[in-house]
Amino acid sequence: MQYDVIVIGSGPGGYVAAIRCAQLGLKTAIIEKYNTLGGTCLNVGCIPSKALLDSSEHYHNAAHAFEGHGIKVGNLKVDFGQMIKRKEEVVAANTSGIAFLMKKNKIDVHTGVGSFKDKNTIIVTKADGAAEELTTKNVIIATGSKPSSLPFIKIDKKRIITSTEALSLNEIPKHLVLIGGGVIGLELGSVYARLGTKVSVIEFMDSIIPTMDKALGRELQRVLKKLGMEFYLGHKVTGATVKGKEVTVTFDDPKGEKGELKGDYCLVAVGRVAYTDGLGLDKIGLTVEERGRKITVDQHLETSVKGVYAIGDVIKGAMLAHKAEDEGALVAEIIAGQKPHIDYNLIPGVVYTWPEVAAVGQTEEQLKAANVKYKTGSFPFRASGRARASGDLDGFVKVLADAATDEILGVHMIGPRAADMIAEAVVAMEYRASAEDISRMSHAHPTYTEAMREACLAATENRAIHM
Ligand code: FAD
Ligand code: NAD
């Protein structure tokens, strides 16, 4: 079979690339080694984690918030088996949706491991060892990433686990020791903390979500402490061992003194590493970077081999589903001769805790380091009528704008539905809006989005109305 484009990997990068290629009239195939499409995101990432976050939040609210609303529930219990079953149904509905989209767009799906014979020939090896060869003009590598570990910790997948196992446990842990206070740790830590697990977070840096604006990490930590999570910041993990049903995690504290925590599970969430095993990159003369094992690409996401592109988690940049999707569409359009563009500064980042954390653009720390003169406007949800009505009083919106031009340079928010609200900031910044532009636009009342307008008013001339 001769194709214009073969996509290897069916995550959000790969399947979006394939659909965009097909829309542009290119004869397209996609190769996926697993039986279900959708990659990490749909099978063991974004979607299942959000399903469990929603279920656990319902339980938490029923246990702690309903009574204040005048709703009494007796004999409240978690049916964890049902919670996991529902998560699996959500995943199945989404992955079969991708299979439908492949059919609809006339994209050939080949199940098996894809590997290079040469730059125009891909071998698909099926689970039973049978192999077939496909030829193509272009290849898009979208093979994603897998969880990484620490060199001295062996993941046994039973007691010392990654996010993949944490999404499919068959019991609620009593004490979950979490290595890494990043996105995965805090999202999955929240799930279990809401269900009654004692969650201890050991983080190497001096704040949680350390790459985001520092104010967000401080506020999130304050809120998660209320949920019962405990934090060991600036602690260096030195080992993790299993004895029966008990895991012992050892660390050096900030003073260099040794300590340990014992739990029934340890979740290692210290980042992910690009996945290129079995691709046969050497057959086309490609190597991966030593750090992170990523494939190197140019500004068109083309590798050093002409006609071979790479996108998503397997290349540089944030490991986010929407970044992979944008790159998938971009490469398809480049292959079709168009001139698309991505502004990487404007890819938002979200943490789906409650309250949610969301940000786009530059952090205050980055602006300081770059000697940019900026002004700040903040608005707390405590002062929002909508947030008072729902009882979501934690968090704030912080807007950073250029001191001279008033152009919005960064928006950092923690609060109810921040994941959805950040879209307004992205639109504003794509159109290079000033804080005053946003503060002059009507925002429906009462909505959480009014906090964005108020933060812009505060940044414009310190003239927020409701505080
Ligand atoms: P992947 O989704 O990893 O897909 C790669 C696919 O390629 C896989 O299906 C793999 O089986 C296949 N493959 C690999 N090698 C071969 C081969 N040789 N032949 C055939 N197939 C192959 N991001 C967000 O933006 N929002 C979130 O809320 C979010 N939540 C997450 C929660 C968790 C627990 C995790 C682990 C990740 C989360 N992410 C989230 C990150 C997101 O999942 C990734 O950034 C995204 O999936 C990357 O997409 P991708 O297409 O590059 O690769
Ligand atoms: P991460 O990079 O977000 O966080 C890892 C954390 O582990 C960091 O805070 C780091 O300082 C810490 N760490 C590293 N080594 C350590 C050590 N030895 N001891 C203690 N702490 C240590 O990585 P993650 O949480 O594993 O997530 C992986 C990727 O998946 C991320 O790139 C993220 O973008 C993506 N993801 C995104 C979402 C989302 O968008 N909502 C959700 C989950 C995952």
Identify every distinct bound molecule in the structure, by name, code or SMILES. Answer: flavin-adenine dinucleotide, nicotinamide-adenine-dinucleotide
Q: Radius of gyration in whole Å, from Cα?
A: 23 Å
How confident is the prediction overall: mean pLDDT? Answer: 97
Into which percent range does the helicity of residues fall?
A: 25-40%
> N- to C-terminal separation?
66 Å
Structure description:
The protein has three domains: 2-147 and 273-342, 3-Layer(bba) Sandwich (FAD/NAD(P)-binding domain); 160-270, 3-Layer(bba) Sandwich (FAD/NAD(P)-binding domain), CATH 3.50.50; 346-459, FAD/NAD-linked reductase, C-terminal dimerisation domain (Enolase-like, domain 1, 2-Layer Sandwich), CATH 3.30.390.30. Helix 3 runs antiparallel to helix 4 and helix 3 packs parallel to helix 6 (183-194). The protein is globular, with a radius of gyration of 23 Å. The strands form five sheets. Strands 1, 2, 3, 4, 5, 6 and 17 form a seven-stranded mixed β-sheet that branches. Strands 8-15-9-10-11 form a five-stranded parallel β-sheet. It is built from 13 helices and 22 strands. By secondary structure, the protein is of the alpha/beta class. Helices cover 32% and strands 26% of the residues. The protein has helices at residues 12-23, 39-44, 46-64, 80-104, 163-166, 183-194, 214-226, 321-335, 364-369, 385-390, 418-430, 435-439, 450-461; strands at residues 2-8, 28-32, 108-111, 113-118, 121-125, 131-141, 145-147, 160-161, 175-179, 198-203, 230-233, 236-243, 246-252, 258-263, 265-268, 272-274, 308-310, 349-351, 356-361, 374-380, 396-402, 408-415. Bound molecules: flavin-adenine dinucleotide and nicotinamide-adenine-dinucleotide (NAD). Flavin-adenine dinucleotide binds at residues 8-14, 31-34, 39-41, 45-46, 49, 113-114, 142-145, 163, 184, 275, 278-279, 312-314, 319-322, 324, 352.
